[in-house]
Design goal:
mainly beta; eight-stranded antiparallel barrel; Cyclophilin; about 15% helix
């Protein structure tokens, strides 16, 4: 089992499991990007979630282990198509969507430590704006 550390805003630290059995292509491609640094902002249409907009970025994967209804801490990678490429990070109740309607993303990471911090992280991103996010191998 491979684990990642996810740090949001320098304050919120999570341990997440790569879902290698369920999303092997997404996990392998994402691992090649580590350490991965971006900005995370609050989602517009997906409920209690934050997202990392990636525009036209291509990870080179298709759909696998995809869902529209992630649980808190189930991190999705959307490879693009109907909407721009993105990573969705739910901190509460979420239904993955864009201005074009409901989407499905690859569930490739699951937060296994730090769940109690998720709602506060979401409120911080909502009220204080974009935050730095870093994904690192443990």
């Amino acid at each position: 089992m491979k684990l990642l550390r996810i740090t949001v805003g320098g304050t919120f630290i999570y341990t997440a499991r790569l879902e290698e059995e369920l999303a092997p292509e997404t996990c392998a491609a994402f691992e090649k990007l580590l350490p991965y640094r971006q900005k995370i902002i609050h989602a517009r249409w997906s409920g209690e979630a934050c997202w990392i907009p990636l525009g036209e970025f291509q990870l080179g994967v298709g759909f696998e282990n995809h869902t529209s209804h992630p649980s808190r801490g189930d991190i999705l990678f959307y490879p693009g198509g109907y909407s721009e490429t993105e990573i969705l990070f739910p901190y509460g109740s979420a239904c993955f969507a864009s201005k074009l309607g409901q989407l499905a993303g690859n569930h490739f990471l699951t937060v296994i430590e730090g769940h109690a911090q998720l709602p506060e992280m979401g409120r911080t991103v909502l009220w204080q704006g974009a935050q730095d996010i870093v994904f690192e191998a443990l």
